[in-house]
Amino acid sequence: MLNADAWNRLTDLFHRATELPESERDTFVQSHTGDDPELREELLALIAAATGATRRLSEPMRRAAEAVALAHEQDVAPGTRFGPWAVERLIGSGGMGRVYLAHRADGAYEREVALKRVRTPVIDERRHGRFEYESRLLAQMRHPAIAQIHDAGVDPAGHAWLVMEYVQGQPLSTWCDQAASSLRERVQLLAKVAEGVQHAHQKGVVHRDLKPANVLVGQVDGQPRPTIIDFGIAMAAEGTDDMAGRGTPGYMSPEQALADSAIDARSDVYSLGAMLYELACGTPPVDGTDVAPSACLQALPAAREKEIAALRGTSVRRLRRELRDGVDAIALKALQPERAARYDSVSALLDDLRRWLGHRPPRAAGPARLLAARTFVRRNRLAVAASVLVGAALVGGLAATAWSLREARQEATRARVTSEFLASVLDSVDPAISQDLDKTLMRRVLDDASTRAARELAGYPDILADVELIIAINQISLEDYDAAIAHLRSVRALAAAHPGRLVFQDLRAMQVLGDAYMSSDRLEEADKVLGEGVVQALQGKAAHRWLAWDMQSRRAWVLFMQGAAAQATALAREAFEALSAGMPGDDQQRLDAAKRYAAMLATSGAYAEAVVLLDEVVQRRTRRNGHDHPLTLAARRDRATVRLQMRDFAAAEPELRALVAAYRTLYGENSSYTANARGLLGSALREQGKVEEAGPHYRSAMESNAARYGAESFTAVISRHNHANWLLADGQAQASEQEQRALLEIAERTLGRDNHVTAEILRGLAEAELALGRLGSARAHAEAALQAMRAVYGEDNAAALRDVHATRARVEAALGAAPAA
């Protein structure tokens, strides 16, 4: 036991030791207590206790200090200038500073912004340079899910300030609860947030404080849009040695709580995992938890569990199943305490989120056969149970109509046989091989169904026709057009062999056959079969009249592609009005007809009417099918195309990026849907001056369409022409001119001179020749383009003739300046 002298010595050594850095304390203790082991042991114990207490108290002490500082900090008066920005009013405050609503005060333009006066120590010269560097880094981030940084600086008192996009919205979890968003809708929003974080990481910026309060959700065009704020936290943390700027407890990674710990992209992965956990089961994870969201949900009181499920628009049982079907695995993978055990990047996390949204097992779940089987069935159902309600999704313009065989008023035997046949087909699929084999497996199922149908259903021609239609519809969705056409011809042959018995099946076969021909660029055959179908449906039963108007709408689109714009628009309008009068507002045929009619209106310059129609289609399909259903995606794509035609390229770009991502998830990189969406994205980028970024998108669309449909197909010619326009924008005028000449020969031979595509190629050729200084030839081709456009749209359609007039004006200006030059 220490005597009085020893206690005095211990006290002195303790105070001296605690004033030293931690790395020097052990050496100090050993050198001053080497002659007294008991004193050394007491001193080390005392230092350890004091250090632990300090660490435990540091966080509440820091928060108390922040509260005191916040209480005494002076508000910035309205009208105070920060560079060209003037403060209007305080809109928020927190540990990192105060946020004010501000506006541009120098008259350069009108814009409301959020101005954040960062609560940091006064910035000295060394840290001023660091602040400017990070400000430039933040300003380089341009993504629809990130609040844009507009400006930054240091006020006269030496405090940093940031000017960023003013986002009107609610925190992510609050918005989801108030909207009663489903789990799928919540994960879709988080995936968009992750895309923004991934963009930031590509720019070298780690957020460090991702949490629901820093993701604000608002409505844009009727759809929720998440926006990440407070990317300035890294700058705010510069020069501090406490917890400020490191994150928010409950959402920050374990390494962020440690002093001098390196922070990297995996810290943001952890925070995204914590947000997913809360969105899934209504509560943030406990630090270091290994409890899955579904288990956390199940541990809650029954009333609270039911409330959480209701906020997600579902039952407790179904929510638990959805969580176990992949969300549990994703959240726990992202929340691993050890960084090396987490997803190694946001990109890997995002891939698993997309897999779950696409009804595929996430990679974090491992080789789970039961999960693979369940998710495969959701992706690839061909039939339902005893009611025999056969659903067929027609992608790329064909309505996915719920078609009930029982509603066709056939006998009970037909329903039973069809049900047993389709059920046996599904039962033949081994779920163990379903993972990652989506199209291959579906083709196997359809090929097997085709072979067995001809053999096992030969005695039931009406059932055989139904099954052949189902197979053909699904083959179109897989882009197996030749196989689909063969099945549809078989249906028509069956109808011809049984007069009066298969009238409805014959009409449906003509409808679907027209879509197969059109999708494979066989426009003349599509026009012929759809025209025949319209006449036959109008002459038949009144119950089949909707098919006549649907096929007329489809035929109008074929005529439009062939250059008969005026005739096509008139037929499309008549079909749309007839379907609107006789069908419900959400009817898929009516919505498809509205979409086609809107596209024709936009091409002729009637943008306002087209946008109204497409907005309605997008809203109705989103409500009925979901935000990323193929039918909704098609409507969103058409609306983005109209924005391109209106030259609103900045608005079209984020929508097209989202469409490309969605199509990749649904169909893969090599799908025609993905390629064509990339082609549209290329146009949005090129017209904004992002020429280099646009190039790969144009090339992808051009190569995909040429390989799929043939080099001289309508679709391939359009995508190749767009690529030729890109060559000109990229400074390759000679290559562009050669491409346009080659395309002109194909277009005049296959489409004729009086076609809007031929006219655009003539205009593109004139632009290339203008760039090369071949002014006489440029004038001739610009005049030819104008004459072709007038033949298609008439003399007085200013919007349709806008671009070709602009090209001709540029050529004439160059000719006028040539002698002076």
TrEMBL record:
CDD domains: STKc_PknB_like (cd14014). Residues 85-357 form the Protein kinase domain. ATP binds at residue 116. The chain crosses the membrane at residues 382-405. Keywords: ATP-binding, Kinase, Membrane, Nucleotide-binding, Transferase, Transmembrane, Transmembrane helix. SUPFAM superfamilies: Protein kinase-like (PK-like) (SSF56112), TPR-like (SSF48452). It comes from the Bacteria. Coiled coil: none annotated. InterPro entries: Kinase-like_dom_sf (IPR011009), Prot_kinase_dom (IPR000719), Protein_kinase_ATP_BS (IPR017441), Ser/Thr_kinase_AS (IPR008271), TPR-like_helical_dom_sf (IPR011990). One of its GO terms (molecular function) is kinase activity. PANTHER family: MITOGEN-ACTIVATED PROTEIN KINASE KINASE KINASE 20-RELATED, SERINE_THREONINE-PROTEIN KINASE NEKL-3. This is Serine/threonine-protein kinase.
